[in-house]
Amino acid sequence: MTIRIVMKRMALVLNMFMIGGPSSHADANWAERHKQHLVGSWAEKNGRLQEPVWPWKGAPNRKTEPSSSSKSHTTDEIESQMKHQSLGLVPSSSDFSEIRHSKAFADKTAFLYEWLTHRPKQWYVTAPPGFGKSTLGTMAVQFLNASVEIVNGVEMFHDKQKTAAYELFQGTEIFEMKEFVDKHFQNYAVVYLDLAPLSNTTEAIFKIDEDFLSQDFHKYLKMAIRKMMSYYPTLHLHHNLTAVERATLEWYLGEMETEVTPVKFWKSASTLARLLRKCFKKDVIVVVDSYDALCKPNILGDITKIIGPYVASYIINFSKMIIQDGQSRVLYLGTFKTIELMLQKPSDLRLQKKTMYTIEHTDFYSDERIAKYFGLSRREVTDILARYSMLDHFSVVDDLLDGHAVLRSPLTLFNTKAVLSYIENKNATPSAVTFAVYR
């Protein structure tokens, strides 16, 4: 069975998501393996996302307030990373900063030009697991986000050419587009939200106020929100903020256990975007990874403990509040599309109705201009195999993975994670490599 057929069957199941009900007969062991993988990979990625790209490279050794950009790598971390790369190992995460200087790098940076120049303001792109969505998301953050720190209550923007991000993108396709780089490189305040923790939800139903936080749905939601806020840990020190705004930021950075309401959760990203705009005087871009994270528990979870309309209300209200002011550009990344994720009702689909909350969607395989930025082409697979001295393995990889066709195009794309899994486990069985596609 090809990956394409599996994905089509999964899409049929998802027609029931949040409106009908999920199947309760899923493979429990597979679900648990998937859950543990998500927890581990998400935690690992969050530990890396901002470290190598937001600090001011070569900042003077002085005492200031902690930067609202990230901390830089320690010498040991840098040496460890260089050793990792010199050994030719496969990158251990999907973070762009780790992949960029590894043998596994395929230059997809021109995606930024396609997105910001030709695509809608609220755009949702879907592709199968393992096709590089998170890498594109972190790449966008690292390219667009201004390198800034807060000193004595005032923002201080760093020289772009002295940032780690500048070195990260040197030599890439996007840096050849000088006019585009001048306009967009490090010229935004970026809100990055990874909803992957919500994939682990086992209970999400409407409860009375005193039981509001007893469900793990809220625990995982708080985890994602706190991580989103933690990329700006000292924003609350900015002198432009009111006492109420400072308290709000501190609440989101804390445990979020007092005076909790659904509205506070829904408004988290829109609040951060508004305050970044106020303090830094820059346009805000929002990147939402794993936008469809709640699809997984709805498919695999206990139908009596996960109520579709309840979790749908969170996603709908959350996303509406991000885009309601019309000021922020938003990129959503995920695997599945449902009408709730598009902030629509069934009646809206029949009427082809568009509102200010409309999110436009593209399946990666439907347009070659988009598809080429996901997965790996045959040429990219052979280039990567050659770097690992495994070019003679291409026929095996081709037979195992088959590739994913693109509509009205000769382009065939391979699952990035599966290809790298094969390289990492040179003597792996076909089943072991194929499993990487679904992790």
UniProtKB/TrEMBL annotation:
Residues 94-295 form the AAA-ATPase-like domain. Pfam families: AAA-ATPase_like. Residues 52-84 are annotated as: Disordered. Keywords: Signal. Residues 73-82 have a biased composition (Basic and acidic residues). InterPro entries: AAA-ATPase-like_dom. Residues 1-26 form the signal peptide. PANTHER family: AAA-ATPASE-LIKE DOMAIN-CONTAINING PROTEIN (PTHR34825:SF1), CONSERVED PROTEIN, WITH A WEAK D-GALACTARATE DEHYDRATASE/ALTRONATE HYDROLASE DOMAIN (PTHR34825). This is AAA-ATPase-like domain-containing protein. It comes from Bemisia tabaci (Sweetpotato whitefly). The lineage of its organism: Eukaryota, Metazoa, Ecdysozoa, Arthropoda, Hexapoda.
